[in-house]
Design goal:
about 325 residues; alpha/beta; 8-stranded parallel β-barrel; two-stranded antiparallel ribbon; 13 strands; globular
């Protein structure tokens, strides 16, 4: 076996093992079930998020699918390993090749996350599909770049996907792929402007839209633009928690996402890690955050579990079982 294969296999095993130790009291039932977590709306995704909020728990959203050593970002294998460990929404990045294939890729170039080089806009899918993904430490893994269709197929009956549209992605085609996989009630579409939110709502009025709101009045602007409040999930930033805003959004029945993620040494994730204060994740949950978007999904989930704020098995569409 080649060195990179053994490294990746070992790292994946370690990552999976984390889910059955740090979270043991909340993830294993009396019969010793250690199957994969599933987040599947029983009716609608909106109702699922309402249930999570009403049960005084918070969901974890794994930024770029929750990469860790040996498990690269925007990889089906990485997301699968994470669901073995914790219940989590998966945030993914979607780009389009010049010959029209949508696939998972964050950067504008292939250099950092794959064995390829060059701009995404210059690489046809016939070349991209031959590449291997590279983990955050620069190790080459045995995993290939997945298409969006492959990611959607994997997610059916498993979890919710937050879809971040890169500049090459085509809204109409992505929405067609989502509908073709019957995933409309298991996706959250990310919009960064009122215009983008309007377009997404016009194309997919049945799907939820993540939109940045920094003050209570911001919701009024979105509603005035023709997007109903019940279609919005509020992304409330990555720097400062805002309990007053969370309260106002709660009164408007709009769920709250807060991001602790970021590459900066001063990101909340990195500060929490540096000072060993993982309990801050539970404090965010107690303060009104319904979804914590993080680069440390396992650690955040462990902190929520310790505070009894991780979603419970058997409630709100959350379950733990072997995949059939």
């Amino acid at each position: 076996m080649s060195p990179f294969l053994s490294h990746a296999a070992l790292s994946a095993a370690i990552a999976i093992g984390l889910g059955t130790t740090a979270l043991g009291q909340n993830t294993d039932n009396a019969s010793g079930n250690k199957g994969t977590w599933h987040l599947v709306p029983e009716t609608t995704l909106s109702a699922m998020l309402d249930c999570i909020e009403q049960s005084d728990t918070s969901l974890i959203s794994a930024h770029r699918g929750g990469p860790s050593p040996g498990l690269p970002e925007n990889s089906v294998e990485t997301m699968d390993a994470l669901l073995t460990a914790i219940p989590a929404v998966m945030e993914i990045d979607v780009a389009q090749s010049p010959d029209g294939v949508h696939y998972l890729m964050h950067d504008r170039t292939l250099d950092r996350t794959t064995t390829g080089t060059g701009n995404v806009t210059d690489a046809p899918w016939s070349e991209v599909q031959k590449l291997f993904l590279v983990d955050e430490a620069g190790w080459v893994t045995p995993y290939r770049v997945p298409t969006l269709n492959q990611a959607l197929s994997w997610a059916i009956g498993r979890t919710v996907l937050q879809i971040d549209f890169k500049r090459t992605a085509d809204y109409e085609e992505v929405i067609e792929l989502i509908r073709a996989q019957d995933m409309a009630e298991s996706v959250i579409l990310i919009a960064y402007s009122v215009e983008a939110a309007q377009k997404l709502y016009a194309l997919a009025p049945e799907m939820l839209i993540s939109f940045s709101l920094s003050a209570p009045g911001d919701l009024d602007e979105v509603v005035a633009a023709g997007i109903p409040a019940d279609r919005i999930v509020a992304f409330t930033g990555t720097r400062t928690a805002k309990p007053d805003l969370y309260q106002a959004l709660d009164e408007a029945d709009v769920e709250v996402i807060f991001g602790t993620l970021g590459r900066s040494p001063n990101s909340i994730d990195n500060i929490i890690d540096r000072f060993g204060i993982d309990e801050r994740y539970a404090e965010l949950s107690e303060g009104g955050v319904d979804v914590i978007a993080t680069d440390r999904p396992r650690e955040a989930a462990a902190a929520l579990s310790a505070a009894d704020r991780l979603p419970k098995e058997g409630r709100c569409g959350v379950r733990r079982a072997s995949n059939k």
